[in-house]
Amino acid sequence: MTDELRYRRLLPTLGSLLTAYDKPITNLANCASAIYHEFEKMNWVGFYLFDGKELYLGPFHGKPACARIELGKGVCGTAALERRAIVVPDVDKFPGHIACDSASRSEIVIPIVLRGALYGVLDADAPEPDAFGDVDREYLGAVVELLADGRLG
Ligand code: SME
Considering the entire predicted model, what is its pTM? Predict the structure, then answer.
């Protein structure tokens, strides 16, 4: 099955799994789990959340990861600061990449902006280089929009 078909199956599942009645942390936890289990190519999927000063580790699936990331540092901090999605085909070639799991070779980070304010980022890693592209950027962007649509408070 192609990644696009997987995302097209995942989005409606998330649409009913994540609800406005549940707490943001519950929705983030279920979202990370659903993405992780849909895609064998990912070894880490999760969220870093913004506390007004820096990013801190939120719900995730995968190995334990660094607890805090400064804005502007690493892929996550850069995506958060610049509020743009970043696809990294080879993490060794991204200056300042923060290695949490040494198995990770490529990465995608999507910023989450809620009512104009930075909320955090969605981060996915893969053990293969070049694992992420436009399809991931588009559909993970749609996942973030779904979350920001009433499911994060
Ligand atoms: N590689 C990220 C750090 C988070 S881990 O991948 C889970 C970065 O450079 O921001």
Answer: 0.98
* Number of other CB atoms surrounding residue 140 within 10 Å: 23
H/E run at residue 153? none
In the chain, where the domains are located: 3-148
pLDDT tens for 64-121 read: 999 999 999 999 999 999 999 999 999 999 999 999 989 999 999 999 999 999 999 9
Ligand 1 center–CA 116 separation, angstroms: 24
Architecture of domain 3-148: 2-Layer Sandwich (3.30)
* Neighbouring C-alpha atoms within 13 Å toward the C-beta of 35: 28
Pocket of ligand 1 (CB under 6 A): 44, 65, 69, 74-77, 97-98, 100, 104, 107, 123, 125
